[in-house]
Amino acid sequence: MSDATVGEERAGEETAGERLVGIVLVSHSAQVAASVAELAQGLAGAGTAVPVAPAGGTEAGDLGTSAELIAAAAASVDRGAGVAVLTDLGSAVLTVKALLAEGDELPDGTRLVDAPFVEGAVAAVVTAATGADLTAVEAAAAEAYTYRKV
Fold first, then answer.
1. Counting Cβ atoms within 10 Å, is residue 136 exposed (0-12), middle (13-18) or buried (19+)?
2. How many Å apart are CA 131 and CA 35, to the nearest integer?
3. Alpha carbons 16 and 31: distance in angstroms, whole number
4. d(Cα 123, Cα 145) in Å, to the nearest integer?
5. CA-CA distance, 110 to 99, in Å (whole number)?
6. In degrees rounded to 5, what are phi and psi of residue 123?
7. What is the pTM (predicted TM-score) of this model?
8. Which of 5, 16, 75, 124 has its CA 20 to 30 A from that of 150?
9. What pLDDT digit, counting tens, does each position of 137-150 carry?
10. Largest Cα–Cα separation, the chain
11. Contacts with 61 (C-beta within 8 Å, 6 or more apart), sequence order
């Protein structure tokens, strides 16, 4: 499934008028972003379709980040309840911070979420699927830092 269709396919399934928090997953790799989006949506189950969009790599298909791809992904998942942006590595964070500082590139109510990329994405999507607001989605994603594996 292509980067563009992962978020659009699920977003198109939502019912009319539903205001859900959108999720953007920014990775240096298009494949990683798309795979994490697919994983998070799959683990959220067949309930409410959360608008999720991967924004990975560059326009040329190389490793890196793209302000244009991030802005387009955020616009595609904006349903009026805010957009949570999760990133993988440092320069992805810097790119999102620059977009937020510009003030007009991302939808109103867009937040950069400090969370682990995979676990945070799953927590964000599962929480957004319940109809939770942006603050609750952000808190659930950030809480993923405390998950113990052993």
1. middle
2. 23
3. 30
4. 11
5. 10
6. -60, -40
7. 0.87
8. 124
9. 999 999 999 999 89
10. 43
11. 30
